[in-house]
Specification:
The protein is 36% helix and 16% strand. It is of the alpha+beta class. Strands 1, 2, 3, 4, 5, 6, 7, 8, 9 and 10 form a 10-stranded mixed β-sheet that branches. Strand 2 and strand 3 form a beta hairpin. Helix 4 crosses helix 15. It is globular.
């Protein structure tokens, strides 16, 4: 009668979870096909309509110069980011699926061309007035000038290349996004109130390169809606010993089908699902938190209490092969980023696989073993393309993990007057010449 389900066979193979899952996949392969279609078709459509929408937009690259006697703390930049957070972050259903509307992004950039450093901001032209107004509100004597896009001058550059070499990576947060980085508040001495600007080491590292070398750094930020704080609330509940309800996806529900089937067989349930026990009533764990746990809960709560931005951090070091020295062009930058790490909380780390690039002068090849040179060149070209596009990729959920306004102001702010790096472009007075043109010239091959 039941030719589709052979319960004798199921009972025989159920002692081996892998064999059972393969058997189930063979019987219900069409469910996997249906799931694939339901997942792929909407995403392919989004790629199409978003691509059409992006082509209609124009962008501006603004060079920003701040006076040498700048006494503003990173708090001023935090106010700028709060103003940028007013840009709509969640398009309506119709705008998203019919018109391909995506949340607007801004790119905060620091570039060193032969040791000369310039702060820039890449913005949709429609929001240029908002960007300038937010900067002038905090830095009335700032000079903001639209400049040619230095990154677009590399459109003809392809790797492998006989004249140039490149190293780059996309940084990501090491832990969950609810855990904070070390912020500018912690760089201020509690007694003397003296602020040790973390940008000083970064500026020194970027100014130490030679005339045939360039360092590009960008933070692509996209305003986030308030849903990102749900993860923070759940993490705090875990630390406090409270129950956390997990949300199941469509894929989770599909993979639960064979497990539910096994549970009908009785004792097999023990093999594939964790044993559950009745939880005894627990006293409030808040009374028994260790100092580190208490600090972690407070830090997570403090981060979730401020506006968040999806953030992508990219770093590129590009130079003529005769001048290419990765030890000078990348390691000091990586060291400068380490100071933003908070032990036990979060820190920046380079993407170990997807964006890892090796070079022959130093370092391991990572996962690049088979066709390593070809794959490495592909990654170099991809990294350069991603940087040029300012991560305006169309895939859903590609906007990066969350940094709040305080964290952003820590990693990107204009150096205070105590930072003596000589080659940071600044204004000399209220009236001065426009910012220097970015000295980059890449030959097309």
């Amino acid at each position: 009668m039941f030719t589709f389900f052979d319960f004798d066979t199921i009972s025989r193979i159920s002692s081996d979870p892998l064999t059972f899952l393969l058997f189930f996949a063979g019987k219900f392969w069409y469910m996997l096909v249906i799931w694939g279609i339901l997942y792929l078709v909407p995403n392919v459509w989004l790629l199409y309509v978003r691509g059409k929408n992006i082509k209609k937009k124009t962008y501006s690259l603004l060079a920003i110069d701040i006076p040498k006697d700048n006494e503003q703390s990173p708090k001023a930049c935090e106010s700028i980011f709060y103003q940028l957070s007013g840009v709509p972050s969640t398009p309506s259903f119709v705008d998203k699926w019919r018109d391909g509307v995506v949340p607007e992004s801004f790119s905060l950039e620091i570039v060193s061309m032969g040791g000369y450093i310039q702060f820039l901001m890449h913005t949709p032209t429609a929001f240029r007035d908002l960007v300038e107004a937010s900067i002038y509100a905090q830095y009335p004597e700032a000079e903001i000038v639209e400049v040619e896009d230095y990154a677009m001058k590399t459109r003809g550059l392809k790797f492998p290349n006989e004249e140039y070499d490149l190293w780059g990576t996309e940084y990501q947060l090491k832990n969950k996004q609810c855990f904070p980085l070390r912020t500018y508040v912690e760089f201020e001495h509690q007694l003397s109130q003296e602020f040790k600007d973390p940008m000083a080491s970064l500026m020194e590292a970027m100014s130490a390169i030679g005339p045939d070398e360039q360092i590009w750094m960008q933070y692509v930020i996209t305003p986030a809606n308030s849903k990102w704080t749900d993860g923070s609330d759940n993490e705090m509940k875990k630390i406090l010993g409270e129950k956390v309800k997990s949300k199941k996806t469509i894929l989770d529900n599909l993979t639960d089908i064979p497990l539910h089937l096994l549970r009908t067989l009785g004792d097999i349930n023990v093999l594939l699902s964790p044993q559950t026990t009745k939880e005894k009533d627990k006293q409030d764990k808040r009374l028994y938190l260790s100092p580190s746990e208490r600090m972690t809960v407070e830090a997570i709560g403090a981060k979730s209490g401020k506006q968040g931005f999806h953030t992508k951090l990219r770093l590129i070091y590009i130079a003529r092969k005769s001048a290419y020295t990765r030890c000078r062009g990348t390691f000091p930058i990586a060291g400068a980023l380490k100071q933003f790490g908070a032990v036990g909380w979060n820190e920046f780390q380079g993407h170990k696989r997807k964006f890892f690039i090796f070079d022959n002068s130093y370092g391991p090849r990572g996962d690049l073993v088979i066709f390593s040179n070809l794959r490495n060149s592909i990654r170099k070209n991809r990294m350069l393309r991603l940087y040029r596009s300012r991560a305006f990729l169309l895939e859903p959920g590609y906007y990066g993990k969350i940094l709040n306004t305080e964290e952003l102001a820590t990693v990107y702010h204009f150096p205070v007057m105590t930072v003596k790096t000589p080659f940071v472009k600044r204004t000399e007075s209220k009236k001065s010449e426009p910012p220097v043109s970015l000295p980059i010239e890449i030959k097309e091959r």
